[in-house]
Model the fold of this input.
Amino acid sequence: MRLSRYFMPTLREAPADAQIVSHQLMLRAGLIRQEAAGIYAWLPLGLKVLKKIEQVVREEMNRAGAVEILMPTLQLADLWRESGRYDDYGEEMLRIKDRHERDLLYGPTAEEVVTDIFRSYIKSYKDLPKNLYNIQWKFRDERRPRFGVMRGREFLMKDAYSFDIDEASARRSYNRMFLAYLNVYARLGLKAIPVRADTGPIGGDLSHEFIILAETGESEVFAHRDLVEMGAPGPDIDWDGDLQPLVEQRTRLYAASDEMHDQARFEAEAAEGDRMTARGIEVGHIFYFGEKYSKPMKALVTGPDGKDVPVQMGSYGVGVSRLVAAIIEASHDDAGIVWPDSVAPFGAAILNLRVGDAGCDAACEQAYKALTAAGVDPLYDDRDDRPGAKFAATDLVGIPWQLVVGPKGLADGVVELKRRATGERQSLPLDAALKAITG
Done:
């Protein structure tokens, strides 16, 4: 993409009401624009990052055996009455009437809708297990939306729902999602810690939050150091095998957010040198809640004994739009965003320091064509602007590689290559620089 043709409205200063780093940088870098309190338009750069995160989540869900569907944003109130949650959910639910006076709501979550879909088609234990997931916009009418997309009212969420014949099978489904989530966060360049969590209005008796480490995080995390350094299980998991040992390896070590922290237990379960305290941001939540929805909604299957039983269910949420902000909170510096390669809006930036100079123009065109052909997706800054402004804008939006082309360097047969994450700079012949970017 040529920047002269692109839409990237950057700001020198963030609005005064932007209180946290991610909100400030998302506005300054032109990722989002606020349309109303807690509601944002996603501009081209932000949308590219959002779609890349969404794709990583999708690939890991598919790998773990989940099947994608797309559910509506508007839901029938009668389904929520059937489950017993319509009156209990509270003022965060946006309630709507259509022209026929039917009660609808803008879905804050989708347990009722997916249970209705399931019970319409699945009647036998032979068709289990099933895990259906949905990447869709949700709405919760927060009383005080703040911190940009970190706590907005409208947000993009991946929500998966498992259906099993008994508790043992349901826990196997839970374990698949537990490990899949760790792989998601690792691919996004994040260190994630699973901590036991309160089930809240979702319900159930088994729940974990996934918290990524970030100095500017909203929560305090207390964990055994080995858990932080353990890393993700990786792609070579036998998803049909016994996953319990992999899960227990991570859950037997102490980990808690400040809401669930027990200092005495922490000291008993982790030696002083193994205790780690850090700030963190919640980016995912998984629940096993058994018959909470299947029983009142009569989502029944015929078991091996011929009797109908409610299915055992779990739900698994990842805040896709929240992850954009969380990654920025975990990865930024004084100059701007530092995107991991996996989600950066562009793979490399080409900075032409003297537009109109025949040598600079030719070298930039050569680089642009080569990187495009290699699938790097370059952003070519072909604007007639000051070099300082180009450097500042490229640092601000966080593109991983910067290829700087100027007449002085070309006279010496080199261009400058900068790695955004480390600040390392090299003077290289153009072909060598392109090879470094493409790997």
In short: DSSP finds 13 helices and 23 strands in the chain. The two ends are 21 Å apart (CA to CA). The CA atoms of residues 286 and 316 lie 4 Å apart.
